[in-house]
Write a structure and sequence with these properties.
two-stranded antiparallel sheet; 355 residues; 2 domains; transferase; single chain; 10 strands; 10 helices; six-stranded mixed beta sheet
């Protein structure tokens, strides 16, 4: 009798072990490969623009550098007062120099500031994705412990406000003022149109329009900026933020924020440029404290000439000045719907320059 062919029992057991070994080895190889991939991706993402986990929520692009606190100290000679170039709501701003010789502006957050981690992270997220000739460039940041520091390109001539009403500076010509306004309008127009929703700056003022060594204007300070609303939606904010004297009254009353709120603030800047005085001046009589209100009242009273910067008298073509004043009034309309969009503001300013 012939028995059917079959594997001996020991061989069957050996075959079972062989199958388990192959399957197990395959799983180990897949697991090891996945682990390696994760490590590579993690290292790349850390190298892009993250520090040692202290600001892990941030995910800006790869052009943003993460500085150690020691590197920032070296760049500013340990924040020496002689390098101090500004002092804002977030903190002090210092002039610094990186190891490669690049001159930078270093903004260091202060503990008692009303602006904190939220504004710090917001500015880095937004600026790291914005690249425009009329928006200040972000170079990097440092977040170690309580230290919140942002490093920007250096703007040699500082804020526009300094050139408008600080007596120790040479007065700007009308042509210079128009070119600066045009540059700022281009930056704001890019903010409003760079995405479907757009970005509302929320704190447009002459102190946040910075000038480089050639007086090219760039919009700065995006700590309280926010994404706008799509055409189908309205955008209501919980708390009104901005600088008194520049805040859109409609936004202040309703908390309804749109790009037209920036347009209102820019209208105030235009009147600053015409008058050479700040948006609020508490040293003046009550009716003149608010620049926007005083300017509108001056026109109604037939005294518009009284608000023109003495440095511009008889140095400006009347048609050009009237065009900018008319534009400022459109920007200051009480109803946001009646305000002109920033693109039209830009066109009108270019016309005024041609005049």
């Amino acid at each position: 009798m012939h028995l059917p062919m079959a594997l001996p029992l020991p061989n069957i057991v050996l075959y079972g072990y062989l199958v388990k070994f192959v399957v197990g080895a395959s799983l180990l190889i897949l697991l090891f490969g996945s682990l390696c991939y994760c490590l590579i991706v993690t290292r790349r993402s850390k190298g892009a623009c993250q520090d040692n986990g202290s600001a892990s929520e941030l995910s800006p692009n790869s052009s943003c550098r993460v500085f150690t606190f020691q590197e920032v100290q070296q760049a500013t000679s340990n924040f020496q007062e002689r390098f101090l170039i500004g002092n804002g709501g977030f903190g002090k701003v210092y002039k610094g120099k990186l190891e490669n010789g690049t001159v930078v502006a270093v903004k260091r957050g202060k503990a008692q500031s009303k602006q904190g981690l939220t504004e710090f992270q917001n500015e880095i997220r937004l600026l790291s994705k914005l690249r425009h000739p009329h928006i200040v460039s972000l170079i990097g940041y440092c977040h170690e412990g309580v230290e919140m520091i942002i490093v920007y390109e250096y703007m040699a001539n500082g804020p526009l406000s300094k050139w408008l009403y600080q007596p120790n500076e040479a007065p700007l010509s009308w042509k210079q003022r128009l070119e600066i306004c045009i540059g700022a309008a281009r930056g704001l127009h890019h903010l409003h149109t760079s995405t479907v929703e757009g970005i509302v700056h929320r704190d447009v003022k002459s102190a946040n329009i910075l000038l480089d060594g050639n007086f090219v204007a760039k919009v700065a300070d995006f700590g309280i900026s926010i994404k706008g609303s799509s055409p189908e939606e309205s955008h209501v904010v919980i708390s009104v933020k901005g600088t008194f004297g520049y805040i859109d009254p409609e936004y202040f009353r309703s908390s309804h924020l749109t790009e037209k709120s920036d347009v209102y603030s820019f209208g105030v800047v235009l009147i600053e440029v015409i008058s050479g005085r700040p948006a609020l001046d508490h040293s003046l009589p009550t009716e003149k404290i608010s620049l926007a209100s005083w300017a509108l009242d001056s026109e109604l009273n037939g005294e518009l000439h009284a608000m023109i910067d003495p440095n511009l008298v008889r140095k400006v073509r009347v048609s050009s000045l009237e065009k900018v004043w008319g534009l400022a009034k459109m920007c200051l309309a009480n109803n946001g719907i009646k305000r002109t969009p920033m693109g039209f503001v830009l066109c009108c300013l270019e016309d005024a320059l041609h005049l």
